[in-house]
Amino acid sequence: MWDTVFSIANALALLMWVALVFLPRWPALLAAILYLGVALLSAAYAVFLIAVVAGIVPGGEGGNFSSIEGVRQIFASDAGVTIGWIHYLAFDLFVGLWIARDADAKDFSRLVQAPILFATLMAGPLGLVLWLVIRERRARAGGRWQ
Description:
The chain is an all-alpha fold and about 150 residues long. The protein has a domain at about 1-100. It contains six helices and no strands. The chain is elongated. The mean pLDDT is about 90. This is DUF4281 domain-containing protein. It comes from Qipengyuania aquimaris.
């Protein structure tokens, strides 16, 4: 079961990333990425996490979030790895969507955006920090929080 969930989540996230990077950013597309991508992955994460924590679905028995050993126990199961991976997929896609929208608003070309979005896909916080550094001058010129 967890292999199938993992594969479906990966395919959905990859489809959304391809659309974000290569397709025109029409409002309907951005909404689809937000609701069919980010929200669906987030909902799957919540449902599976609750199911495992409530004991409805086995996985991560004896694990907790209060120690490294407890977290290791959670990730020692296919359920824990899959749920954790869906968490990464959802948040990285959300950050990528924010970067793309912010970059478009600040008139950065798609050629500048593409490697930052790729870095966000592969290592979310790395892409985010790259974007925060690159956007700083234009953000300051337009007003700090624009």
